[in-house]
Amino acid sequence: MSAVIWLALDGVGHPADAPPDSVWEQDLPALRPLIDAGLALDAALGVPGLPQSGTGQSCWLTGLDAVQLMGKGGAGQQAGEHFGPHPGPTLQALLREASLPVRLTRAGGAAALLNFYPPGYFAAQARRPRYGCFPFSFLAAGLPLNPPGLPSVSPLLGLHHDFPWAAAQSLDDLRRTGESLARTAENADLLVIDLWLSDLLGHQGRPAAPPELLTAGKRYLRHLDALLSGMLGAGGRVVVGSDHGNFENLNIKAHTTARVPFAGSGVALGQPGNIVEAGAVMAGWFGLT
Ligand SMILES: [Zn+2]
Hints:
Pfam family, one: Metalloenzyme
InterPro entries: Alkaline_phosphatase_core_sf, Metalloenzyme
Distance between the termini: 19 Å
Radius of gyration: 18 Å
Largest sheet: 6 strands, mixed
Protein name: Metalloenzyme domain protein
Bound molecules: zinc ion
Domain Metalloenzyme: 179-264
């Protein structure tokens, strides 16, 4: 069976919890039916405060409650803590031991992180290592970033990095990339793309934000839609999830407590209620329990 391609969205709350006139309010012929047929999961995990990338992504990657783990041993006897954006020592130890790329590789499976990392990324990491949960987990598994011989995907998905985030690639380009990813999947077990531009755009949110922000947000989802349509058209098995809300509400700058999508094609989603349980479901796809 071909690999599962995991589109790990950053900061994308479920459309059911988005305010009116959000980025979701548009025609997304591949993405929206997939999301609507999937689940909306709790990412707050019963802990006060706003969900963060470090703990949220660790929950997905391990199927364990990283938020509870962060609260342990704290001075205030607190029951859980949202932590991020990058994993610190506690979460790093968890990811080294229990993240999906590590466990899958240990079991003889083939996993790859397909993000394209530019030279500047490696230079910045050399000065001050601050890997996000996804690159950290793949490195912990002994796997390279920018894996040779595999297609790489920019998490910008064909948008410029800076305001007004204009399109640098066509939807057809993205569709073709999606098709090529689905073909690559025939020789692997798990392919992951860590898609963080949504969170960056979400943090630009504010009351009366410039209209270019909403336009760019909608563009990002259309590009994601095109990538997905290429994958699905070529028979790819795909899962879409997100670590917390943010991007679905561009009226505010911060993360949100919105539920997050868990959706897929060619995979059994089961009945998880939160992102920890969803992480466990995903591990189960590879016989890891
Ligand atoms: Zn995040």
